[in-house]
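Second opinion, please. Pick holes in both lines of this record:
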Amino acid sequence: MSTEIIKTVGVTKCFGALVAVDRVDYSLRENEVAGIIGSNGAGKTTFFNLVTGYYPPDEGSIFYKGRDVTRMTPQQRVALGMTRTFQLTSTFDNLAVIDNLVLVYFRAHRDSTLLKLLLSTCRRHRNEDKIVATLETFDLQHVRDRLVKNLSLGEKRRLEIAMAVLAEPQVLMLDEPLAGLAESEIKVILEVLGRRVGKQTILIVEHKISHVKDFVQRLTVMHEGRVIADGGYEECLSDPEVRRSYWQIDTEQEGSKHAAA
């Protein structure tokens, strides 16, 4: 059994009268590829924001490699090895694609501050092997010198994921990374992420189970802020609560039909 890398205990977050995350216990093991699914409003992204430090929990604790990080900032958690993407892309929109990758690479691998990199020129670092390889892997060569603000949604999404992968964090956390992408783009992203399996801990939040069913090793289903199922893909799909809440299948009616037959 691999080492536990992330753990939450009784994590709760309320927005006024709305309980967005309700006493969630969760664990993620080193090099595990796990997915969290649920309908809109299930609490997936709020839980993600709690784990990565963008929201403080109202109750409960969050641990990273056994260390309590509940009150740490997002930046402190990134320094420990947690990197995430967002539902809405998060990039340096007024810089070129290549310069976004340069900044991420040197921040992660060369111990350079963002200020130092911005004050110096990025141009001399544009041909680093890993940066060039990342452009090719994510099919971004043709837009390498384009300002990010002029990219399509699909190109921008691929860039954000490329930046997260290039940083080589211990835990790569992806919040609905496939939203808005064409099927061909989804295939590219999943192929790239598939090469990370066994080498990196990956947690992916998705709305549609069809996108991640062949990728994740373990599935967690959330509904109304609670975890209602956790385990293998088939195990979660057949869970009565998942069928009622996620698939909106009337299991009682279904059971009556089988009994009548």
